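Chain A, query sequence.
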Amino acid sequence: SGTAVQFFPANAVLNAASFSPGPLSPGEIITLLGFNALPSVSVEINGTPAPILYAGANQINAIVPFGLDLTSPASLQMNGQNQNVKLALPVAAASPAIFTQNGSGLGSGAILNADYSVNSFANPARRGSTVMIYGTGFGTLSSPVTDGQVVVGANLTTASVTATVAGFPTQVSYAGAAPGLIAGLTQINVLLPDRLVHNLIAPVVLNISGSSTINGVTVAIQ
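Chain A, predicted structure.
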């Protein structure tokens, strides 16, 4: 009976970590809401397949290709059974966000302590130690990667990342691909300053290419 063209608002395309709309960036993990992905779906951005991480009744998680053209709006197309959606979206070099433990984009961040245990109220990090923060939308990497594939080793972000914890600037010792995990997931290693005080909800903000992660993500500190 033909293919139905579905109305699909641009604000239903979200950063998978912050759950906020915004420009697409290379390697960003995105969440698309409201499209029936069953029984099968394909996603393309500027004609390049976007690897799909999850596809369900009303949600798709996909990865923006690292070769995204930043000179003009991106054309995102989804094709499913009797459905076809196409829309134009803005682009940016980076659209950073930190994953959170509850999946809402706010609250305790997806952060590991120096011993690789999960940072939490019950397991805060020591001052002077390094924590590993996981996010997406931090743009291109120094060495080429294959879209949708697991990254084998360290691979720095092209642009530098800065960080503040509880408002204090802090050292970033690594920002890049997360070894052993899929390309598009970014790992940022941050040194917690000794001058921090005990705080189970210390705000953490990361900045890259003039864009910052949203306020409201926290790390627990002893």
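The CA atoms of residues 27 and 64 lie 5 Å apart. The chain has no helices and 20 strands.
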